[in-house]
Amino acid sequence: MLTGARAHAPELRRFATFLAVGLLNTAVGYLLFALLSLAGLSPAAAVIGATILGALFNFQSIGRLVFGQGGRRLLPRFLAVYAGQCWLNILALRALSAAGLAPLVAEALVLPPLAVLTYLAMRQFVFGSRP
Description:
Order of helices and strands: HHHH
Number of domains: 1
Largest sheet: none
Radius of gyration: 16 Å
Helix content: over 70%
Number of helices: 4
Mean pLDDT: 87
Structural class: mainly alpha
Distance between the termini: 20 Å
Shape: globular
Number of strands: 0
């Protein structure tokens, strides 16, 4: 039983690092979303703007600190994952807003499940699945 736990320990550490780095990235992204939203942009435009502004910083922080990789060759796949994440974010935000939630509250609810999906996509499609 302990052998199985030890085998998963590197993946759990990497996910924990992803979450720690993600907290910073999420805080920056949410701040950008809030600023753009409060500046009068629609929720969808604010999500797109925040995603674009945060993507390059996030590529470096996630790539280097979480997966120990970088390199420009990975950037197109990283940006593709971010584009998918942005699309899912907009769909979820629209659904929650249609249900009566304010955009800032809806976005706060969308972020946790989106973080898990983003990690899995980064691990599988961008940086490989090795712990």
